[in-house]
Amino acid sequence: QADAVAGFLADEHPATRAAALELLAKFKVQGHIDRILALLKDADPDVRRRAEAAANGLATFKEAQLIEALLKHELPDTRASAARLLTGIGDPNLADPIAPLLRDSDARVRRAAVLAEGKLSPKKFAQEFDRLLKDEDEGVRAAGPLPEDALGQREDALSLHLTRDDERRVVRHVVEVADRAHLFRCHVCQHA
User: Fold this and answer.
1) 47-85 pLDDT, tens per residue?
2) Taking Cα atoms as reference points, which of 97, 151, 153 lies closest to residue 120?
3) What pTM was estimated for this model as a whole?
4) pLDDT averaged over the chain?
5) In terms of Cα–Cα distance, which of 63, 105, 66, 103 is closest to 114?
6) How far apart (Å, rounded) are the C-alpha atoms in residues 42 and 168?
7) How many CB atoms neighbour CB 95 within 10 A?
8) How far from 70 is each of 38, 109, 143, CA to CA, in Å?
9) Residue among 46, 99, 30, 107 at smallest CA distance from 68
10) How far apart are CA 152 and CA 102, in angstroms?
11) In angstroms, what CA-CA distances link 33 with 10, 76, 103?
C-alpha cells in the first residue's frame, strides 16, 4: 500500500502530492524518504511544507547528506526545512553544515539555523550570540535556546532596551504572579 501511495508523489497535481505526503507521514513509511526529501524542492509551498512534516521523524543520519545538499537550495523555505530536519536528526556533527545559514539573507532561514545551532552545538551558538542579538529580525534575535554561557549576556542586552516604565511594569507583574501563587498555595493547604 505504501508503494501505491508513494506513486502519487510524482503526480502533476500539487493537492495529490500533498495528500500522498500526508498519508506517508501518518503511517511513518521509511522506505520512500528520498522521494519525500525531493519534494522539499517542489514548486508548491504546501507540498514543501508537507514534505518537511513527512520527513520529520523519518529522516536519519543516513539521509543527512541528501538533506545537507538542500541547505544551498535557491528557495529559502527549502533551506530552512533542511536545517530543521538536520536538527531533528540530532547529531552534533550536523551543526557545521548549518552554520553558514546563520548569515543567510532570509530571516526564516536564519531563525531555523539559530534553533539548529542552539540545539546541536550550543558552544558554536554562544560564539555567534553577540552578532545574533543585533540581527535585523526580531524572530532571529529571540529564536533558539539560550546557552548557559550566554544567559548573562542576554539579560544584560535585554535590560538595555527596557525603560524605567517597562521595568516597573515587569516588577508589578512579577509581584502579582507571586501573590497569586502564594494565595493558591494557601488555598491548597487549607483544603488538604
Assistant:
1) 999 999 888 878 888 888 889 889 999 999 999 999 999
2) 97
3) 0.64
4) 77
5) 103
6) 50
7) 21
8) 9, 12, 22
9) 99
10) 22
11) 14, 21, 29
